Known about the structure:
CATH architecture of the largest domain in chain A: Orthogonal Bundle
Structural class of chain B: mainly alpha
Distance between the termini of chain B: 144 Å
Number of domains of chain A: 2
Distance between the termini of chain A: 82 Å
Helix content of chain B: over 70%
Number of strands of chain A: 0
Radius of gyration of chain B: 49 Å
Helix content of chain A: over 70%
Structural class of chain A: mainly alpha
Low-confidence stretches of chain A: 1-6
Strand content of chain A: under 5%
Largest sheet of chain B: 2 strands, antiparallel
Strand order of the largest sheet of chain B: 1-2
Radius of gyration of chain A: 22 Å
Order of helices and strands of chain B: HHHEEH
Mean pLDDT of chain A: 83
Number of helices of chain B: 4
Low-confidence stretches of chain B: none
CATH topology of the largest domain in chain A: Rna Polymerase Sigma Factor, Chain: A
Shape of chain A: elongated
Oligomer: heterodimer
Mean pLDDT of chain B: 77
Strand content of chain B: 5-15%
Amino acid sequence: MDETVENSAPPAEDVAAPDDARLVGRVVAGDEDAFEELFNRHRRRVALIASRFFRRREQIEEIIQESFTKAYLALADFSNERETSFAAWLARISFNTCYDELRRQKRRPESAMSEVTEDESEWLKGQLRAEGAGDDVEAATVARDLAHKLLSRLSPEDRLLLVMLDVEGLSVSEIAEINRWSVSKVKVRAHRARASLRKVLGRFL
Amino acid sequence: MVVKKRDSVSEERLDRLGRGLVRASAMNEAEAEAAASSGFLYARLRSRIKQSEEREGWLVTLRVFWRAVPAMALVAVLAVALFISTSLGAGPSDVAGDESPLDMTTEGVVFADARNMSSDDVLATILNEDEQEASR
């Protein structure tokens, strides 16, 4: 057997696409193409996270740009090997960016909350009276508009937590990791968030 | 007790309805996909990163000035205070005895002795000299 042919074959891992950690290393070393590769890999995930909180495309684009900008400027933190997964780290940045934007929106005086219409209020009452209340809510087209109106009445912290629990399906420990909270703090906040949402719904029922 | 049970049932229903509404509010995949596929998104991102890096550079310079200027001002104040205190300390000294250092009168005449002789003293001096000459 020809040893030179055997030795010149590239190892399998170099032929396959480099993993995120390797790309981060290359970005830190100054390779901009590596950052573009990271962006293309993860932009949809960031967009999806943003779409949990914001409806308009421009808002979602803004969150994508802000999240990736923060990630780029903080890449040294990731490459210091404190983080194990780039995707998880980027998701944390995205959630925090969404939270910051929700707080900013809440502070603006012109962001008046839309009123719930009579029809929407009746629909809510009907949902509550129905046997499987809430089971098929997301299927209703009226639900999306109404849901945004109602959730805008919650504090940004409550809204963030409820989305993480009910939409993203994250566990308490995962939420604690993302927000740098203790597990007990997550549980207490989740309890309060549900109580707040019940209070908001109760006003219209 | 019956009222409590009814309350817990309605709470449960409210929670279930709330969960459904939260999920409904998040059903926005079409907009998410449209945003992620937006044209020139990466180019805009690069431009934003460049602006952020420039802003960070200015902020670092500002922070350095913010810390350096008060420190330099403090040093300057201390230097001026030291200068003033040494200047005040080098003012006219108290004369312990009659002999004083050379001093300038307004007319420019220097008196070595601080004492000003009165006319009587001058007359006494002259008379003493005359008597001494007469006795010789």
